[in-house]
Amino acid sequence: MTYAPQDSPEATTYASHDSPEATTYASHDSPVRPVRPVRSRRTARFLAARSLKLHRKAWAAVFAVLVLTSLVLGGFALATLSTVAGHARVERYAGAAAVVAGDQTTRYTAELMGGESHSASAELTERVRVPRSVLPRIAAVPGVRAAVADDAFPVAMSANPTATRAGAPAPTSTPTPVYGHSWQAAALAPFTLREGRAPAGPRQVVLDGSLADRMGVRVGDTIRAQSLGTPATYEICGIAAPKGQGDRTGLGHQGAVFFTDQRARQLAGHPGSTDAIGVLAEPGVSVEQIHAGVRAALAGAEPARSVGAGQRYEDDDTGLRVLTGDSRGEPEFLDAAPSRWGLLQLLASVCALVVMIAVLVVAGTIAQAVHQRAREMALLRAVGATPEQLRATVSREIRTVAVVAAVTGAIGSVPVFGLLLRLLRSRDAVPAGLELPTPWWLYAVPLLTAGLTVLVAWLAGTLACRRTARVRPAQAMGEAQGEPERPGRGRTVTGLVMLCLGAASAGTAVLQFGEVAAMAASTAAVTLVIGCALLGPWIARGALRVLGAPARRFGGAGGYLAAAAAQANSRRLGAAITPIVLMVAFVTVQMSGGATLDRQGGRQGEEAVRADLAVTTAGSGTTGGPGITEETVDRISRVPGVAAASGVLHSTVVLARKDVGEPRLDRLPVLAVSPSAMPRLLDPGVVEGDTAKLGRGTVAVGKDRARSLGLGIGSVVTLRYGDGANVSLRVAAVYERSLALGDFLFATEELAPHMSAPLHSRVLLGLDAPAGQVQAAVQRVLADTATGARVTPHPAGEQQKAEDRGVGEVITVVAVSVIGGFTVIAVLSTLTLIMIGRRQEIQLLRLVGAGRRQIRRMLRIEAAVVGLTGLVVGAAAALVPLVALSLPLAGTLPYLPPVQAGVIVAVVAVTVAAGVLLPMRPALRKRHPAGVGKR
User: Fold this and answer.
1) What distance in Å separates the CA atoms of residue 254 and residue 251, rounded to the nearest whole number?
2) Would you say 365 and 826 are in contact if contact means Cβ atoms under 8 Å apart?
3) Of 70, 135, 814, 907, which sits 20 to 30 A from 240 (CA to CA)?
């Protein structure tokens, strides 16, 4: 075959080795003969193969970007779909055919314009119980062997050091929560005795084997246990283990302590209701039969709820639920469903963000790779290649590279998915009770993301070569000698429109508050970054006008060359700046948004807490407790020297509202304290009303939330507690420290009845005597009333955080890492492509007398211009939405930790320097062809 280089006017005949025929391309001034479709496809295949060999470095950069795109999209898609298929673990009810539980979902239905009704739902975080009166109805269902009531109440335990026999293993900490149950409920796992006997008296218990091993106790030893009352000493009469689980001696993610049925009902504190009812089936009876029979028996039955004054239940048309299969674990782990929904929302938002950035990065990289070949494609057009042949050639090249890259990335996405799950588990972002399965069909998802990657690459390549393939050959040759004088009108107009939309969204965020402000600020960030990407050439020109003069004045010959080269190729410079703007803007928004709220919330929390001492527990398990009882708080308040004492309860409420006409349910964290202890112990910063009026039927509201709901002193707000109670409350006070204390503040007597276990997370103490003396007295009281509690001076600030904040922090770190790594690869690829295309330019400068030092200085100045422009524009694109977000939500300017800001600047500097200087090293290493010396 004869192939003429792109700068040679010779040889217009191309013949493949496997074909005796030659495909002739007529030049633009000779008649063109029609080309057969088969020959046209053969020609495109031949040209694509030669181009892949000739432009290996350019396609290597595209290959790297596409591999990373497929890998990241596949990993996040796997995590998202695994969360969709997620469910609560089934441990305690593994032996039950079905479980009857209260409906843990609250619903809100709103009528829209035109009479159409829409509904929204939210998961409840406190237990909705089942009346014990339905037990006979369930037990009478044909095929049911037994209906067993089960109560799960938190238990704190420690081995009795005076009664434990000598030589017992040393106790270890228990990382899992421990719950008490009746011995009758042991059949639901099912548990069987490995040692000892069943409990027969109120001071006898059976432990699961795993818990006993961790505590270092055996049958006959004694333990000290506390639930919702005072601690008591119990004798271990037996040790049990789940049946049919091999060598496992426990449940895995929860510990179990079994009491007598009467003692368990007494400790649970609600004798008329139970947490759940397990249904055991007769041999040979199917789960479907049990489900249908129990559903029919429960028709019309309602959950057990104590409705007080001003309380009601709405939108509850499901009554009790009959759970089978994987759903049986929902009553065991109430936090699994809310955590799954929060994780799903965060993963979906990150996926959308990654897809958008991937499209921008892939399109920019491929467009730059195709633009490097503009002269080659113009020459092919000039010698007679048709537009269809050019498009087919580029399409075939991109498909070849994209398919291999996408499949490689899809294979690598599986271990990335595993790493992401391990990271979420290690940071406790996913509760232990949430199972994220990986069924076999899940691993077909990376193939779909690989197909999406190929489609994006093909579209980007088709759009990149459309102008060269469409214009007349003579015009294509003219445009190939340089860049168009100004970007296309459509691109410019679209970019300006996106900037205007971003500014408008930022203005909306400043004028609004709450979630509306956050959504508007997020929209502003996305639209501003897209606008900057579209207006990249104009941004580059503007940057050169500002930086060109100092570069010429202080950079010497290298500065003059850098300014001239950049001025002549503003589109090329804009292509290099765009991924830097993407990285800086998105990373800054992700890191600064949470840091600003945390900083301001921490400051408010420190200002709010005025207590001298605090009583806390070390956590669940053998060394600590799940919380502190109200009885303990009362005894502490009577200690001499304690002027004020108040426990702190944490729970959630659900706020029903309309958002742009659509019904919406927001689950918000709340706390409750004793009104008499404010503001001596906890000062919320009251701006209106009086917190001393808090009590039954009243609530204090944060200033921003009151403004959004139009509330004032004496107004009525309707909230749904964590157990589903829909309550109308009168506003008693409005406070300003809502970032720390949450949007609603309750009295203890108002919130406690709606909690599954009303245990205080800590007790705040105000003193009127020396702290050391009082601390010792309080510690003596705790030794008898609270297992594992301790007294600490100088209490930390109180700061409420959303229940999905833990997973949000992990996802933010992952998103920042992914976006940062993605754009770093994009910057390197784009700059490498640009510098490879400039090697002839550098060689020409060497021929006309430019020295190596001058060219190096020119490249360094260009790198500085690109990096500085990207940092400034990216920071500006991030600052606008951040200001719009932080002012209404935190009342302060955005904050970014200096270390994180320094990391962003360092990454940009290193990446740009590597992308500009490293590709030019081979060209600068060669000696001057004419023997010109170094300068």
Assistant:
1) 6
2) yes
3) 135
What is the rounded CA–CA span in Å between residue 366 and residue 61?
9
Contacts of 874 (CB under 8 A, 6+ apart): 532, 580, 581, 582, 583, 584, 585, 588
Q: Which three-class secondary structure state does DSSP give residue 866?
A: helix
CA distance 704 to 750: 23
pLDDT at residue number 472: 66
Q: Are 473 and 386 in contact (CB under 8 A)?
A: no
pLDDT in tens, 808-827: 677 777 777 877 777 787 78
Among 468, 321, 306, 316, which residue's Cα sits nearest to residue 386? 468
Query: Whole-angstrom Cα distance, residue 807 to residue 156?
Result: 27
> What secondary structure, in 3-state letters, does 230-284 show?
CCEEEEEEEEEEECCCCCCCCCCCCEEEEECHHHHHHHHCCCCEECEEEEEECCC
Strand partners, 108: 120
What DSSP state is assigned to residue 469? H
How long a stretch of residues is the chain? 935
Strand, coil or helix: 806: helix
Instruction: Look up tokens 């910057």; give the residue.
Output: 827
Specify the amino acid at residue 254.
Answer: Q
Number of C-beta neighbours around residue 801 at 10 A: 15
Neighbours of 485 (CB within 10 A): 6
Alpha helices by DSSP H, 427-486: 445-464, 466-470, 473-480
Return phi, psi of residue 417, to 5°.
-60, -45
Helix (H, G, I), strand (E, B) or coil at 5: coil
Residue in 349, 580, 516, 534 with CA at minimum distance from that of residue 884: 516
- Tell how strand 232-242 and strand 204-208 pair up: parallel
Closest CA to 78 of 461, 418, 558, 499: 418
Q: Range with the lowest mean pLDDT among 77-81, 277-281, 777-781, 799-803?
A: 799-803
647-671: b or e for each residue (b if 16 or more CB lie within 10 Å)? bbbbbbbbbbbeeeeebbbebbbbb
Q: Could you tell me if 828 and 911 are in contact, meaning their C-beta atoms sit under 8 angstroms apart?
A: yes
3-state helix, strand, coil split of the chain in percent (to 5) is 50, 20, 30
pLDDT (tens digit, 9 = 90+) per residue, 584-626? 888 888 788 778 888 888 889 898 999 999 998 865 433 345 7
β-pair partners for 153: 180
> Do residues 465 and 366 make contact, with C-beta atoms less than 8 angstroms apart?
no
Encoded tokens for 510: 């400043």
Specify the 3-state DSSP secondary structure of 472.
coil
Q: How far apart are the first and last CA of the chain?
A: 44
Side chain identity, residue 586: F
From the CA atom positions of the chain, what is the Rg in Å? Answer: 35
- Among 730, 538, 617, which residue's Cα sits nearest to residue 177? 617
Query: Quick one: tokens of 121?
Result: 């739902």
Using alpha carbons, select from 777, 783, 748, 753 the residue that is nearest to residue 765.
777
Over residues 20-36, mean pLDDT: 42
pLDDT at residue 365 greater than cutoff 80: no
CA-nearest of 97, 86, 84 to 328 is: 97
Residues 853 and 933: their CA atoms lie apart, in Å, by: 11
Distances (CA, A) of 550 to 318, 554, 680, 857, 868: 73, 6, 61, 14, 14
Residue 60 has, within 13 A of its CA and on its CB side, a CA count of: 9
Report the Cα 623 to chain-centroid distance in Å: 32
Take residue 827 and report the two structure tokens written for it: 């910057």
How far apart CA 703 and CA 847 sit, in angstroms, is 71
CB-based contact 269:448 (threshold 8 Å):
no
In angstroms, the CA 788 to CA 157 distance is 9
Q: Which candidate, 826, 796, 768, 877, places its Cα nearest to that of 67? A: 826
CA–CA separation, 834 and 822 (whole Å): 18
Phi–psi pair at 778, nearest 5 degrees:
-65, -40
